[in-house]
Amino acid sequence: MNRTEGRVKVTGLATYAAEYPVENVAYAYVVQAQIAKGRVKRVDATSALELPGVLAVLSCEAAPRLAEDADPELALFQSREVAYRGQIVAAVVAETHEIAREAAAHVRVDYDADDHDVSLSSDHPGLYQPEVVNPNFPSDTEKGDVEAGLTAAAAAVDVTYETPVLHNNPMEPHAALALWDTEGRLLVYDTAQGTTGSRALIAGTLGLPEDQVRVVSRHVGGGFGSKGTTRPQAILAALAARMVGRPVKIALTRQQMFDVTGYRTPTIQRLRIGVDAEGRLTALEHVAYEQSSTLVEFAEQTTVPARVMYGAPALRTGHRLVRLDVATPSWMRAPGECPGMYALESAMDELAYAAGLDPVELRVRNDPETEPDSGLPFSSRNLVGCLREGAHRFGWEHRDPEPGVRREGEWLVGTGVASSTYPARRSPCKAVATMQNGGDVLVQVAAADIGTGARTVLRKIAAGTLGLDPERVHVELGDSDLPEAPVAGGSMGTASWGSAVVRACEELLRDGKEGRADTTDEVKADSELARHAFGAQFAEVRVSAVTGEVRVSRLLGVFAAGHIMDAKLARSQFLGGMTMGMGMALMEETLTDEEFGGFLHRDLAQYHVPACADAQHVEAYWLDEQDGELNPMGSKGIGEIGIVGTAAAIGNAVFHATGHRFRDLPITPAKVLTARF
Amino acid sequence: MKPFDYARAGSTAEAVRDFGPGTMYLGGGTNLVDLMRLGVAEPERLVDVSRLPLDTIEPVGDRVRIGATVRNTDLAAHPLIRSRYPMLARAVLTGASGQVRNVATVAGNLLQRTRCTYFQDVTRPCNKRRPGSGCPAIAGDHANLAILGTSDACVATHPSDMAVALAALDAQVHVTGPGGDRIIPMPGLHRLPGEEPERDTVLSPGDLITSIELPPAPPGASLYRKVRERASFAFALASIAAVLDVRDGSVAGCRLALGGVAHAPWRAERAERALIGGPATGEAFLQAAEAELEQARPLPRNAFKVPLARNLIVATLEELAP
C-alpha cells in the first residue's frame, strides 16, 4: 500500500514539530557545558540580555523549579553540577533563532572544573554489575558448567569484540514548540516516538497534572530510539514559553544532537564458545562491558540475545557497567540485540572456522527446541528456514570456505552470514473507531508515525477488520488527547496499536456507531512463551588490497517475522535496517574526546552513514510465518530486526575476503591497511 | 550567528573596492555559511561575488579559461573540460554531492577550509582558528589529517579534490586585488602550515580569484582516484591526480599530485623526478612512491596514510602505464 501521508510529505505540506504556524513565537537556543565535570561557578548573561531581541536567559541562576524527582537528563538548570561536556547549562530566548544563537555565544559561563574520566575499558576500577539491564532483564544469568564445557570442547574460541559510540541521527532534528493557553494548559508539539508517555514525562517533570498537558507529534522525521524518551528540548520549550509568556520554538542543531539526544553505548564484549566434534555447542559465555553517565544508569541488554539464540548445556551471560563523565546512553535501533549479535555472530563465525564447519550449518545444528535461558517454548521460530532460504537465494552452496583467496584485480572478494533476532512484544493500548456520516470510519489512537508507515498499516488493519475499502478508513494519531498508546519503539508499535485497533473495530461492528478498546487485560492474559522474530543475513564484500576500502556488493536478508502486514512498508523497514547495519559495520563511529570530554565527530560530514551509492544491492525477503500466539494480526515487529546481525555478516565476509579478522567496528580503510593481511 | 552586512558586487573592481577590514567574499557559500553558523568565520561584511559575470568556460588559444563563479556541476559537465581534461572533470565529480556541486563555485572550492574537527569547533583550541591556542589534533583526532608538510602547529588537510587535479595540470590562478592583477601558478596558491597555519593561501586581504587558466593538457594518460570509506559524499582519506606519458617503455612525462595528505594539494615532485626518464615498471613506481613518502611525518592514527599513498601512487601509475 502507498503511504497515506505520502503526498503531504513529498509536497512539503506535512508539518513537523518546529513547523507549526504559531503567532508571536519566540526561539530558544542552548548554551552547553564546556567542561566534562565540575560545577558552574557563575553564569553572566548581561551582555546577552543587552542584545536587541533577547527576551530571557535561563540557567541555574535563574531557574524555574522542576519536580524534585525529575529525570536528571531533563532536570534542566536545577543543579550547578556538570556531568558531561555538552550538557545544557543555559538557554537564550529571543525574537528570532538567529538572535538567540548569537546571544548564546555572549552568555559567559565560569566553571570549577574537576578531572574527568570518559574512557571505557574492560579493567576500569569503577565497573559493577547492574541489577537489571534495559528494559528489565537480569544482568547476569548462568546455567550449567561453562568451564567444563569449554574444557571438553573439540574446538573453542575466546575472543573480544569492540563497538564504538554510535548516534541515531534522524533526518528531522530534535525540535519542540510549546504554548501555554490562558487556562494554564500546556501544548507541546514535540518530535517524539510517542505522545502518551511524553505527556506523562513532561507533566511529571514540570509538576503538572497530566490532563494539563497535551503533546502533539503528527509527523516525525525518524527517531530510531533517540526520540523514544522525552528529550530536553520539550522541557526547555515549555519552561521558556512560561517564562516569556509566548510560544517558544527550539530545534537543536545537528552538532547539539550528538550531545543531548542519547547514543548507543560503546561495548567491549568477550565471548567464549566451545563446540564438540558433532558441531554442537558445549558452552557459551558472553560478557559485555559498557558505560553510562553519572546522572542516570542506562545498562544496555547486550548479551540478552545470547540467551535466545543457540542451545548449549552451559550458558553464562553478564553485563558490567561503569558510570563515566559522559552523556547518558539511550536507545538506538535494537539496543542490546544489535551490538550483542554483532559480537555473538562474529564469534560463531570464528567458531565455525575453528571447527571446520560451514557457518550456516553450525547455526542450524544448534537451533534449540526451547528458549535456551528460560526453557520457554517458542511461539514460533524459523531461524533455520531463514538460513536455508537465504543460503539458496544468495548462492551459498557455491562458496569456497577458504579465506583470503578470491581476487578480482585489486579487489578481494568474500561472503559471510549472520543470524538476526528481535523480541516480538506488545504493550497495552487503547483505540476508538467511530462511524462517520457517509459510512466512513475514523480510527483514533495516540500512536506515532515516525516514518514507518504507522498510519498506513493501521488503516489497512482497520479496513481488514471492518471489511471496508481502506479508502473509507481514516486514521488519526500523534496526539496525546487520543486514546493512550505505547511508544513507537522496541518493534512493538504495530503489534500494540494494531491489537487495539482490531478490537475497537470489532466493537464497532457490534455497536454500529462506535467501538472502544483497551487491550490491557488481553495483553496481560497472553500465555508465557518465548516470542521472537528471526532472520538470516548474507553479505558479499569487496576489499581493496590497494586502499583498504570495503564495499558491500550484495546484502541479502531473509526474515521470519510473523504475518507481514504490508509488503511495501515491510520491505522498506528491512532494507533501512540492513543499510543502517552496513553503516555500523563500515563507517559509523563517534569519537570520544579524551582530552576535553564530549564527542568529537558531531556532524554528518564526519559521522558517515551509508549513501545511496553504498547500498546498491540490498535485498530483503521473508517467510510467510503463521503464529497465532502473538496478536490478532499474527505479526511480529520489523523495525529493528533488519539491523541485527548485518554488521556481523559484513565483518564475516571481510574475514572471508581477506583472511584477517577485524574485531572492532567500524572496519575502515585505516584498519584494513594497517592489518597488512 | 554574528550579525553581518551584505552587499552584492556589480563588478570585480567594485568587489575589490568594497573590501575592507572584516570583509569576506561570498561565493556559493557551501563552506563559508557553515563556518559562520559555527562561529568559526565571523565576517562583519559579506561581499557576494557569486553573480559576477565570471561564469563562463572558454578556449583561449590552446588554453582554457574557467571563470571563478562557474559552478562545480557546470565545470564537470563542460565539453571542453570533459574532452581535454577528463581527470579534472572526474575529480570534481568525486567531490561533495550533486546538490552541493550545483551551488559551489570554482574559486570557492579552492578557498574552502579544512574540515579538521578542532578547527570547526570554537569551544576547542586550534592554532588555525586562534593562533597560539594549541593543536589538540596532534594528540587527539588526527586520523584523517596530514602526513606531509605538517608543522608542530598544525596537521590539517586541504579538503578540495578539484585543487589536486588543478595542481597536477599546472593551472594558473588569475587574481585581482588592491595590489592589481597577478597570476599564481598551481601548486603554489596554498601554503603549508609552518608557524602561520591560519593562512591557508598566499592571497592577501581583498584578493579575488577571477579565473583559472589551464595550459594544454600534458601528453599521456591521466586519472583521478579518491579513497574514502563510503562510496560518495565524503572527503578523501587520500586522493591522486596522475598523468603518465610512456614512450618506448620509459617515462617521458609524469605529473602526480596527492590530496588528503597535506595542508595543500601535494605535488609529488620527488616521485616525478625519480620517474622521468626511467622505466615504466612496477618496481620503478614503487621506488618513486617511497622516495616521495620518505618525507612523511605520520602520527599514530594517520600512519595508514603512508602505505595508502604509496599503494595509490603505484596502483594508479600501473593502471596508466600501457
UniProtKB/TrEMBL annotation, chain A:
Keywords, sorted A to Z: Molybdenum, Oxidoreductase
EC number of this enzyme: 1.17.1.4
Domain Aldehyde oxidase/xanthine dehydrogenase a/b hammerhead: 11-115
InterPro entries the record matches: Ald_Oxase/Xan_DH_a/b, Ald_Oxase/Xan_DH_a/b_sf, Ald_Oxase/xanthine_DH-like, AldOxase/xan_DH_MoCoBD1, AldOxase/xan_DH_MoCoBD2, AldOxase/xan_DH_Mopterin-bd_sf
One of the record's GO molecular function terms: xanthine dehydrogenase activity
Highest taxon above the source species: Bacteria
Enzyme class at the top of the EC tree: oxidoreductase
Pfam families, per the entry: Ald_Xan_dh_C (PF01315), MoCoBD_1 (PF02738), MoCoBD_2 (PF20256)
Record-given protein name: Xanthine dehydrogenase YagR molybdenum-binding subunit
Source species of the chain: Nonomuraea rubra
TrEMBL record, chain B:
Enzyme class: oxidoreductase
Keywords: Oxidoreductase
A Pfam family assignment: CO_deh_flav_C
GO MF terms, alphabetically ordered: FAD binding; xanthine dehydrogenase activity
SMART domains found in the cross-reference section: CO_deh_flav_C
InterPro entries: CO_DH_flav_C (IPR005107), CO_DH_flav_C_dom_sf (IPR036683), Diverse_Substr_Oxidored (IPR051312), FAD-bd_PCMH (IPR016166), FAD-bd_PCMH-like_sf (IPR036318), FAD-bd_PCMH_sub1 (IPR016167), FAD-bd_PCMH_sub2 (IPR016169), Mopterin_DH_FAD-bd (IPR002346)
Enzyme Commission designation: 1.17.1.4
UniProt domain FAD-binding PCMH-type: residue ranges: 1-219
Name by which UniProt lists this protein: Xanthine dehydrogenase YagS FAD-binding subunit
Organism: Nonomuraea rubra
Lineage start: Bacteria, Bacillati, Actinomycetota, Actinomycetes, Streptosporangiales
